[in-house]
């Protein structure tokens, strides 16, 4: 159910947002006045994140590999808030092994989450974004242009996501929808089972990507930064 108050606020739908970049982007957008839905596969983690962010943030369980679940939650967001202005496609996983050693299950999990899951989420959101003249952010990676040994599935998913993002720009630009690929290097997150610590101080921080997102949203409507590569400014010397 929507009210006049919720309809007057801009809204955002963010996948993979129980921690790290997704949570930081959600926090920044809520502070900027947005009504936000965040998703995760973990009920416990997404509930905790929504409570931490506060201000009416909706935390919902949603596996982006399930197109019906994604459509249901996007529709629920529009029903709750009266529209959709920003889609931040962030959900992602990584399994790393030589192609010969990678299992079919690992390959499918990465491609189905990082690429097909992005497609399902974007496709579900396009009608609502057209109505608002919205903005799509895809969280890619420098791995989407720089292959590395053992990165077969992850590289393929991010190369594919970049291609999908570029096509979306062409498909949607005359509907007033912007599409930006954000391609970070090393970020201090929990990705791959990592636990951020003081040793990660040199890395990009999730809050940096959140600030970038807010800054991009403030760009004039006539201007589109379609691909933004982000690197640590002073990585350790090798």
UniProtKB/TrEMBL annotation:
CDD domains: SDR_c4
Stored SMART domains: PKS_KR (SM00822)
Record's keyword terms, sorted: Oxidoreductase
Taxonomic superkingdom: Bacteria
Cross-referenced SUPFAM superfamilies: NAD(P)-binding Rossmann-fold domains
Residue ranges of domain Ketoreductase in the record: 10-204
NCBIfam families associated with the record: PRK07326.1
Family note: Belongs to the short-chain dehydrogenases/reductases (SDR) family.
Entries under PANTHER family matching the protein: DEHYDROGENASE/REDUCTASE SDR FAMILY MEMBER 7B, DEHYDROGENASE_REDUCTASE SDR FAMILY MEMBER 7B
Identification of the protein by name: SDR family oxidoreductase
Lineage: Bacteria, Thermotogati, Deinococcota, Deinococci, Deinococcales
């Amino acid at each position: 159910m929507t009210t006049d108050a919720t309809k007057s606020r801009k809204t955002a739908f963010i996948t993979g947002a129980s921690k790290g970049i997704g949570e930081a982007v959600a926090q920044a957008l809520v502070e900027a006045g947005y009504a936000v839905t965040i998703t995760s596969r973990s009920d416990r983690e997404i509930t905790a994140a929504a409570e931490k962010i506060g201000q009416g943030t909706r935390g919902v369980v949603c596996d982006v590999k399930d197109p019906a679940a994604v459509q249901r939650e996007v529709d629920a967001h529009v029903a709750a808030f009266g529209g959709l202005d920003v889609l931040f496609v962030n959900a992602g996983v990584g399994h790393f092994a030589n192609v010969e050693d990678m299992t079919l299950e690992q390959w499918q999990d990465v491609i189905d989450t990082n690429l097909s899951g992005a497609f399902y989420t974007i496709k579900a959101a396009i009608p609502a974004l057209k109505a608002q003249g919205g903005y799509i952010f895809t969280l890619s990676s420098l791995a989407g242009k720089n292959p590395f040994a053992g990165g077969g599935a992850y590289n393929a998913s991010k190369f594919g996501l970049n291609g999908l993002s570029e096509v979306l720009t062409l498909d949607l630009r005359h509907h007033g929808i912007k599409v930006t690929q954000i391609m970070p290097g090393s970020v201090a997150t929990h990705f791959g089972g990592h636990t951020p610590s003081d040793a990660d101080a040199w890395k990009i921080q999730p809050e940096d990507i959140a600030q970038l997102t807010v800054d991009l949203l403030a760009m004039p409507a006539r201007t589109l930064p379609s691909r933004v590569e982000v690197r640590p400014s002073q990585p350790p010397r090798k």
